[in-house]
Specification:
2 copies of one chain form a homodimer. Helices cover 28% and strands 28% of the residues of chain A. The first copy, chain A, has 231 residues and is α+β, with helices and mostly antiparallel strands. Chain A has 2 domains: 135 residues, Nucleoside Triphosphate Pyrophosphohydrolase (Alpha-Beta Complex); 71 residues, Arc Repressor Mutant, subunit A, CATH 1.10.10. In chain A, the strands form 2 sheets. In chain A, strands 2, 3, 4, 5, 6, 7 and 8 form a 7-stranded mixed β-sheet that branches. In chain A, a hairpin with a 2-residue loop joins β2 and β3. At the A-B interface, β1 and β6 of A face β1 and β6 of B. Chain A binds a DNA duplex (30 and 30 nucleotides) through α5.
Chain lengths: 231, 231
DNA sequence: TCAATTTGTGTAATTATTACGCAAATATAA
DNA sequence: TTATATTTGCGTAATAATTACACAAATTGA
């Protein structure tokens, strides 16, 4: 049995699309889903879907992430809402978008429910994407590039334990500029938001590096004192 | 003749709500509309309305502003999208919100089409407002307070010609802190984004002040050189 | 044990920010 | 017309933040 829903005025559909960003192999990557349905069948697109009844926007985003990638408890923020009437060839669909930062990668592979093929693409080598998703991705990158300077987003992209060099490289990749190592370390350590662990990395080559963790408690204390993160 | 619109799945309605901010008499003010229909009849609310067919979100915002206040060519930016299923007692209505900054005030009075009563309220003395509009207003104020520090929003709130004291007072009101006059002037003038006019104010009392105008051309040049406004 | 690689550290020079007080121009009241 | 109240416009010294820059120590692999 099929029920239809009837309204006095036309209503656009509402979808939620997610820009999932991960950092691996020294590059920022974006997760895309391979479309097998029209429109844009065969193209890659952001993981998204339609809003369900009784669902809030953020609930919808979380559900979609779970369905498409198995990811739970992601760090996410609402990005922007796109509503040009012609952005979807089928009909007017308004897309509320979120960006999602993740720090561990295999999420994608081990999800039983997933049907569509998904893959990570380096942000500098994105394929041709469906709909206005290229514009959405650009807005996401701009937002993250700006925001990583004044809010602790970077730690969401790294594993829990990281070296200062890894942190610096991440900033360099996102900001697209090189930073002085000594000044970077001085600044980050003086902020007093990192917890020094007494562990070091074991690597193939070079002096082992001390591992650090982001200390959210210290960070919140800092915020209360109206001192803000700023690179 | 009445046509109905039918869909396979339920669709929330989509509205656009605007937080209009103006600066007058040394205070930031917000424009509210007095509701005469249910729900929340008798309460004040943000000027908003439903999205029309074929309309983009920003077009909708512009249309509503025109209808409710007569204002044209406003400075506006998308703020956030609110979508909790219970935010409207009637049904699920998603609200895409914009903030609008205006620098000349009588807009409100001389609009023939307007039906509802509208009024400006100082942001510190807002009445009890309908729906989740108090939350929306809070988000708008937080956003403006943050953004005025690193983008030239302030000039949208002042008349075209203004004195440095007026500009300073505006910052003081929004940031809720006092600023040193000499340092403020030094900083703003050193940015080289103001055009000094050879006019002065004529006031009741005190030394006349030189008028300045925001120089958008200089500002854009600055942006291109990757130098950013920052208070 | 030598070479290659990566980490970890200090200081001096430069630039930006802060703190602070007084004279000049005007309107108003005496 | 003179005195008073008010507001503008301006400079400097002290402090804090940012920048530029090089070498020794710890490790791996040859």
């Amino acid at each position: 049995m099929k029920i239809d829903y009837t309204y006095k005025y036309p209503r656009p559909a509402i979808s939620v699309d997610n820009v999932m960003l991960g950092y691996a192999d020294g590059a920022l990557k974006i997760l895309l889903v391979h479309r097998t349905n029209e429109p844009y069948s065969g193209k890659w697109a952001l993981p998204g879907g339609f809003l369900h009844e009784g669902e809030s926007l953020s609930e919808c985003s979380v559900r979609i992430l779970k369905e498409k990638t198995g990811l739970e408890n992601p760090f996410m923020e609402q990005l922007y809402t796109f509503g040009a009437p012609d952005r979807d060839p089928r009909e007017h669909i308004i897309s509320v978008t979120y960006f999602v930062l993740i720090n561990h990668f295999p999420v994608v592979e081990n999800n039983a429910e997933k049907v569509d093929q998904v893959a990570w693409f380096p942000w500098s080598e994105l394929p041709d994407v469906a709909f206005d998703h290229a514009a959405i991705i650009r807005v996401a990158i701009d937002r993250i590039r700006a925001k990583i300077r004044y809010s602790p987003l970077a730690f969401e992209l790294l594993p829990e334990k990281f070296t200062l060099s890894q942190l610096q490289t991440l900033f360099e990749v996102i900001l697209h500029q090189t930073l002085d190592r000594r000044n970077f370390r001085k600044k980050l350590l003086s902020m007093n938001i990192l917890q020094e662990l007494n562990e070091t990395t074991t690597k193939k080559v070079g002096k082992p590096a001390v591992l650090y963790a982001f200390d959210k408690k210290k960070y919140d204390t800092m915020l209360q004192q109206q001192i803000y993160f700023e690179l």
